[in-house]
């Protein structure tokens, strides 16, 4: 670049001062993104038989290193800071959410990596994907998708011809799954740390797009899996559009996308409320969709049902953490001053979510769908904590997220173990009398279900207790009453499964319980241990969740 | 104390390993922890009654002041005696009751012991949250114990019912605890008693907590789970449903009555529900043929009685309540164990089949008689002491007390009547019936039943001891001038008269049982709570199925519809109420807009009607181009250019995909009933968006800060008169480069995928097997995404 041109640049603009970057603070995110990119390169250049081990090693190692970096930073971190020109806020809630995400991501990657429960892994095989016979069918099935989703399983469980060849077992699963999951995780981490709406939107897309793909990669029941992916994608795109529109309106209202600036604008101004309300409404719709809060839950059961179980676990745990992290930040930082306007709307949404989750969950005969509805009900509980705009509400919700995430990952881990010759036995009838065949698995699952129901000595109880007591302190007694009634009703369908497992005679040709491989065992153990620990010694995580609020 | 509770649980964990080898040993081993707890409590009776209470705390989650606090005070003392004493006896009894290899026994031993431990924790708890934790754990234990073998449909259902009702109550109670704790600032029961909180929240808390207590103690209208739970093996029924678990609710009321002394609806509610439960339970017990069911309804009735006494909050009532608590635990445990023996030895417990059993099981009959004396409230049993005190408690008072007194009297008549029915039904000679055969019962079975029965008499005769025990608790309400003391003889007074009336009435009622049964048959069948429960469950199930069928059909249009409706309702309603349309909106700026708009509208109509996929895609393209045209008319050629580009690109992508799809839409015609709502929702959504766009663009008041800079600097900084151009190629040139790079990468990816698929297909000419359509999906994903971003930027 010659001096003349340089001069012209200066004429046009002042020299750009690069914003300072706190590398130590955002090291975990950078590590994750780097690993994801490296993962893509590994896909491209390593021979097929080495990929799996390299990808698994890379992912797990990165998660651990990122965790260590996070821990090292958190040790010396103050109340928090913003970096990257104020687009990312690294404060205590962020650190907590990052830690949660990394830990949950670790457990999920373990589940995803397992190749012993399903021979060769639960994902579509290398040679299978390019020749999947059902791809065409999936698309045409979609356009005729008015029929119930369950109807599609009939022809999809048959393995495609290529699968039966010996090559399928050898070639193993598609290892793109790992970089995809890592990208998604990085997106989640940015999502819950984003300090302005635009960054949040980008992060939303980064976390969503890989998830859409992951949903469609099940080895068995291809049709169902692909249908789930397309549904998730279309509805997700819709929600993203809402988010974006809301973002634009809020920008129009306040003249900035920064959360702090929006907060300032709402605090005292005579600007048009129309833009603010419509903006909040649309933005929140987008966020609630990601958190699968009813009535924006429609995708949840179908997607949870269709996606590979390991991915479902990943989605259910991590996405919820990220989405609620973002909801908390938006509500507490940007919209706190205008809380009078939206408070009762979110009240209604929380009630609806709990009711939908519980009432619809009662009829489910498929265990994955049942857990999906339970997650909708849990989203309602979480929302109760999130709209209590106090420090206790914040820390209670954070704790709940941690507790719920680990329980959920373990639940899906256990679900993946109970199988028939045609894959997972997700129909409830297959679970009858499980305790007689496999007492250990039944006991573990019972414990997890009790945690979901919120019975004492499990993390679920502690979470509910924190959240509800925070809500009561904030004066939302009627809402908490509804929440408690909902949790009692929700207990019904968890307990029904327990009754089914213990008090029924197993069917003669019922499913068997696979011996889990080291990976799945590790993931389930991690989930169960955390669930128990948080139930008995909640102080461990509580101390961390309860230091300071958001920084903007 | 904590050690004792933990010992129960630890031994319970170890028990299954013992039970596999030697079941009897397991039960003997299981009886050790309760026995130890009993011994420990006995040692502490003296100090506790003299006011030296034992307190233990353990910080649990200090940050939110959660702690495990245990405290042995007079009330806890009475309950501990029951829980541990009866627990040890029942475990010893089970040793002989269950067969050597009975799978029921193997499951029951650890569960019963764990239950005893949890129950011990519950009665000792001094912290509301600790109490709740143990409360829920008893629910789970009892569920597992009742469910047991669970092969029968009935036992599964009743286990589930018990669990549901008590869990629901427990959660409501937790809410009450939280409200109470938050309004008082402490969760410690002893502190709450010392400084009872006041305020509106306390009244709410009282009601919520009562719901929990009522469900657990099987009060009307939640009473139906208890008789339904009688499918459990008898020792379990004896322990859970007589001595301990159902007492939890009553115990909770006793615990918290000092806190709620000033709250009117606390004692009104307990009195109303208690008296009603006492009468209804007694009435139902008169008509049961199954001895266990009879006892179960008797328990329901007695629990109502206890609820009245312990909820009232006066000293005399508390004395009565505390002694009745002891009495009931003792005689009901004994009677349940007796019924168990009868069932075990005679093979049936149906009154209509049993006859003359007293000859076969004389000791058992004697034990039963001793226990029944206490139940019917006859001297010299402890039941008599309690009943006398109860009558005394409501003697002096207004109308309310008189009504309660009358209710208690009626309830006592029923109690005597069903006591007689039990004794007569189980052991008496019945005309026209042969003597039932039964194997003589061993001492291992009879002794555990006899011990509590005799204890009931001993406590009655040695009434000063009983008085000490109950007064220590009752003194929390203040002793007053002339405190009431339990005694067998108070002189000739009204309570004695009432006792006599109850006895005479009960015996008469029993003598006239045939007529009573006929009367009941003639009465219209009341709407029972059991039916209500079943109706509610069925309704819930039906609603759930119905709603699921409507909403979760797995159809994308429906889902979209739901989301659209929500958007219409939530932000739409806000817009409707808050915003006002800008005045003077010109319908058009330029004439050229009209034909373009018409074209777009026609294309829209065409898209909706299209049968062929390609037609639909082309028409969508037409809409896009039309909008591009509108941009040109409004003077934004660059914007229009971008729009045209995006439209073309999307079209190309579409065509790639469409090649793989059938030419026509395969969806069958939607039902006409569905068409109208679809049209309505779609049109409403469109109108909403249009109106919203109009409103939003007019509602903006804040000055556009970002563009001001660009507008000001475009001319001098970039030498451009078109600000948009200046932004794209100059101010934000780096962004543009990035954008282009991304587009280029995406396009390369798409192209290579298309080529790769073609290459693969050519290589593998499998019949009827085309390339994967999953890939085109990915491709559209990328494209759509890019185009969306493109639009966003524009």
Main pleated sheet of chain B: 2 strands, antiparallel
* Largest protein-protein interface: A-B, 110 and 103 residues
Number of strands of chain B: 2
Which H/E pattern describes the elements of chain A? HHHEEHHHHHHHHHHHHHHHHEEHHHHEHH
* Low-confidence spans of chain B: 767-794
Strand order in space, largest sheet of chain B: 1-2
Helix fraction of chain A by DSSP (H/I, runs of at least 4) = over 70%
Largest sheet: spatial strand order of chain A: 4-3-5
Give the overall shape of chain A, derived from the CA principal axes: globular
Number of strands of chain A: 5
Shape of chain B: elongated
Poorly predicted parts of chain A: 1-12, 128-170
Structural class of chain B: mainly alpha
Main location (chain B): membrane
Subcellular location (chain B): Cell membrane; Membrane
Protein name (chain B): Multicomponent Na+:H+ antiporter subunit A
GO biological process, one term (chain B): monoatomic ion transport
Structure description:
- The complex is a heterodimer of chains A (552) and B (794).
- Chain A is 72% helix and 3% strand.
- Chain A is mainly alpha-helical.
- In chain A, strands 4-3-5 form a 3-stranded antiparallel beta sheet, with no helix packed on it. Chain A has a two-stranded antiparallel sheet with strand order 1-2.
- The longest helix of chain A has 33 residues, at 222-254.
- With 794 residues, chain B is mainly alpha-helical.
- Chain B is built from 32 helices and 2 strands.
- Chain B has a two-stranded antiparallel sheet.
- In chain B, strand 1 and strand 2 (66-72) form a beta hairpin.
- Chain B starts with a helix and ends with a helix.
- Chains A and B meet through helix 6, helix 11, helix 12, helix 14 and helix 15 of A and helix 5, helix 6, helix 23, helix 24 and helix 28 of B.
- Chain A: It is found in: Cell membrane; Endomembrane system; Membrane.
- Chain A: Residues 194-487 form the NADH:quinone oxidoreductase/Mrp antiporter transmembrane domain.
- Chain A: Belongs to the complex I subunit 2 family.
- Chain A: One of its GO terms (biological process) is ATP synthesis coupled electron transport.
């Amino acid at each position: 670049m010659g001096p003349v041109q340089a001069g012209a640049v200066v004429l046009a603009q002042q020299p750009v001062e690069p914003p300072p970057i706190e590398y130590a603070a955002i090291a975990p995110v950078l590590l994750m993104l780097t690993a994801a990119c490296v993962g893509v390169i590994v896909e491209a250049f390593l021979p097929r038989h080495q990929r799996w081990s390299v990808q698994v090693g890379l992912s797990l190692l990165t998660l651990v290193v990122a965790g260590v970096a996070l821990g090292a930073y958190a040790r010396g971190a103050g109340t928090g800071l913003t970096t990257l020109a104020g687009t990312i806020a690294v404060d205590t809630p962020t650190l907590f959410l990052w830690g949660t995400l990394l830990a949950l991501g670790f457990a999920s990657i373990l589940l995803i990596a397992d190749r012993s429960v399903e021979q060769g892994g639960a994902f579509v095989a290398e040679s299978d994907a390019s020749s999947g016979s059902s791809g065409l069918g999936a698309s045409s099935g979609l356009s005729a998708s008015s029929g119930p989703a369950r109807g599609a399983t009939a022809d999809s469980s048959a393995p495609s011809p290529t699968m039966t060849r010996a090559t399928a077992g050898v070639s193993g699963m598609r290892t793109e799954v790992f970089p995809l999951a890592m990208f998604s995780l990085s997106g989640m981490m940015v999502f819950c740390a984003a300090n302005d709406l635009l960054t949040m939107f980008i992060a939303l897309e980064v976390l969503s797009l890989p998830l859409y793909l992951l949903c469609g990669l099940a080895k068995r029941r291809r049709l169902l899996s692909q249908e789930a992916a397309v549904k998730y994608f279309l509805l997700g795109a819709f929600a993203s559009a809402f988010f974006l529109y809301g973002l634009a309106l809020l920008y129009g209202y306040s003249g900035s996308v920064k959360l702090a600036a929006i907060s300032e604008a709402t605090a005292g101004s005579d600007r048009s409320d129309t833009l603010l309300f419509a903006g909040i409404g649309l933005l929140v719709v987008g966020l609630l969709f990601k958190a699968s809060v009813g009535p924006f839950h429609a995708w949840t059961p179908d997607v949870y049902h269709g996606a590979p179980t390991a991915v479902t676990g990943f989605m259910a745990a991590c996405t919820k953490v990220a989405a609620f992290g973002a909801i908390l930040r938006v509500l507490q930082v940007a919209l706190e001053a205008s809380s009078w306007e939206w408070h009762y709307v979110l009240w209604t949404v929380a009630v609806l979510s709990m009711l939908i989750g519980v009432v619809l969950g009662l009829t489910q005969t498929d265990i994955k769908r049942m857990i999906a509805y339970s997650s909708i009900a849990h989203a309602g509980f979480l929302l109760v904590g999130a709209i209590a705009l106090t420090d206790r509400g914040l820390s209670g919700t954070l704790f709940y997220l941690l507790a719920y995430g680990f329980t959920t990952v373990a639940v899906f881990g256990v679900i993946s173990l109970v199988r028939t010759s045609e894959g997972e036995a997700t129909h409830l009838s297959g679970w009858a009398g499980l305790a007689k065949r496999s007492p250990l698995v039944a006991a573990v699952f019972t414990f997890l279900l009790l945690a979901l129901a919120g019975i004492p000595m499990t993390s679920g109880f502690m979470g509910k207790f924190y959240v509800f007591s925070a809500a009561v302190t904030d004066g939302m007694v009627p809402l908490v009453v509804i929440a408690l009634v909902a949790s009692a009703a929700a207990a019904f369908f968890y307990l029904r499964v327990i009754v089914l497992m213990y008090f029924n005679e197993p069917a003669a040709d019922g499913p068997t319980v696979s011996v889990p491989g080291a990976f799945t065992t590790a993931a389930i153990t991690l989930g169960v241990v955390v669930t128990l620990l948080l139930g008995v010694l909640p102080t461990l995580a509580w101390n961390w969740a309860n230091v300071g609020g958001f920084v903007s | 104390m904590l050690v004792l509770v933990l010992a129960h649980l630890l031994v319970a964990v170890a028990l299954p390993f013992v039970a596999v080898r030697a079941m009897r040993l397991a039960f003997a081993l299981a009886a050790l922890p309760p026995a130890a707890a009993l011994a420990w409590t006995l040692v502490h009776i003296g100090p506790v009654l003299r006011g030296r209470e034992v307190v233990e705390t353990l910080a649990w989650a200090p940050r939110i002041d959660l702690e495990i606090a245990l405290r042995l005070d007079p009330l806890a003392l009475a309950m501990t005696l029951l829980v541990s004493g009866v627990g040890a006896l029942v475990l010893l009894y089970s040793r002989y009751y269950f067969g050597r290899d009975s799978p029921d026994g193997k499951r029951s031993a650890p569960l019963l012991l764990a239950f005893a431990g949890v129950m011990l924790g519950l009665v000792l708890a001094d912290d509301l949250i600790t109490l709740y934790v143990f409360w829920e754990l008893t629910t789970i234990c009892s569920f597992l114990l009742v469910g047991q073998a669970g092969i029968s449909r009935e036992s599964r259902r009743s286990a589930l019912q018990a669990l549901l009702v008590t869990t629901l109550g427990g959660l409501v109670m937790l809410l009450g605890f939280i409200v109470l704790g938050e309004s008082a600032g402490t969760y410690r029961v002893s502190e709450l008693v010392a400084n009872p909180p006041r305020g509106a929240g306390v009244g709410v808390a009282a009601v919520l907590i009562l719901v929990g207590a009522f469900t657990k103690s099987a009060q009307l209208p939640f009473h139906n789970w208890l008789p339904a739970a009688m499918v459990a093996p008898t020792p379990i029924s004896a322990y859970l449903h007589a001595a301990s678990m159902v007492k939890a609710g009553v115990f909770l009321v006793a615990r918290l009555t000092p806190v709620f002394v000033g709250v009117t609806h606390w004692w009104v509610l307990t009195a109303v529900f208690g008296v009603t439960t006492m009468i209804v339970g007694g009435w139902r017990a008169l008509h049961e043929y199954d001895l266990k069911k009879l006892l179960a309804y008797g328990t329901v009735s007695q629990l109502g009685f206890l609820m009245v006494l312990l909820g009232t909050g006066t000293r005399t009532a508390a004395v009565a309540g505390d002694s009745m608590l002891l009495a009931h635990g003792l005689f009901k445990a004994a009677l349940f164990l007796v019924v168990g023996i009868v069932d075990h030895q005679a093979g049936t417990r149906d009154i209509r089949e049993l006859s003359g059993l007293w000859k076969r099981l004389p000791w058992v009959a004697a034990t039963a008689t001793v226990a029944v004396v206490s139940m019917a409230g006859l001297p010299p049993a402890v039941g008599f002491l309690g009943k006398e005190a109860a009558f005394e408690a409501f003697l002096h008072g207004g109308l309310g007390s008189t009504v309660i007194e009358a209710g208690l009297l009626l309830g006592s008549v029923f109690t005597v009547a069903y006591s007689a029915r039990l004794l007569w039904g189980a052991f008496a000679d019945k005309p026209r019936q042969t003597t039932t055969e039964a194997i003589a019962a061993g001492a291992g079975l009879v002794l555990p039943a006899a011990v509590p029965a005799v204890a009931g008499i001993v406590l009655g005769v040695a009434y000063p001891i009983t008085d000490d025990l109950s007064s220590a608790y009752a003194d929390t309400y203040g002793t007053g001038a002339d405190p009431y003391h339990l005694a067998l003889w108070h002189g000739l007074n009204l309570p004695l008269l009432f006792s006599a009336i109850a006895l005479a009435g009960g015996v008469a009622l029993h003598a006239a049982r045939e007529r009573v049964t006929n009367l009941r048959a003639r009465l219209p069948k009341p709407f029972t709570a059991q039916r209500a429960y079943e109706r509610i469950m069925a309704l819930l199930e039906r609603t759930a199925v119905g709603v699921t069928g409507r909403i979760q059909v797995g159809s994308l249009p429906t889902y979209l519809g739901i989301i659209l409706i929500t958007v219409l309702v939530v932000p739409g309603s806000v817009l409707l109420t808050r915003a006002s349309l800008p005045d003077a909106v010109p319908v058009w700026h330029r004439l050229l807009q009209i034909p373009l708009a018409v074209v777009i509208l026609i294309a829209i109509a065409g898209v909706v009607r299209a049968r062929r996929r390609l037609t639909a895609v082309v028409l969508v393209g037409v809409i896009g181009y039309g909008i591009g045209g509108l941009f040109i008319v409004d003077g934004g050629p660059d914007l229009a250019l971008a729009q045209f580009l995006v439209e073309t690109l999307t079209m190309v992508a579409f065509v790639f995909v469409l090649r793989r799809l059938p030419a026509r839409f395969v969806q069958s015609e939607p039902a006409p009933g569905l068409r109208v709502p679809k049209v309505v929702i779609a049109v409403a959504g469109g109108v909403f968006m249009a109106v919203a766009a109009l409103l939003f663009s007019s509602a903006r008041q804040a000055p556009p800060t970002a563009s001001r800079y660009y507008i000001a600097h475009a001319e001098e900084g970039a030498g451009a008169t078109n600000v948009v151009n200046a932004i794209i190629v100059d101010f934000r040139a780096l962004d543009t480069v990035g954008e282009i790079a991304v587009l280029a990468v995406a396009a390369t990816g798409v192209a290579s995928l298309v080529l790769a698929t073609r290459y693969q297909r050519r290589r593998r000419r499998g019949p009827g097997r085309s390339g994967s359509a999953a890939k085109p999906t990915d491709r559209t994903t990328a494209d759509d995404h890019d185009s969306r971003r493109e639009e966003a930027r524009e």
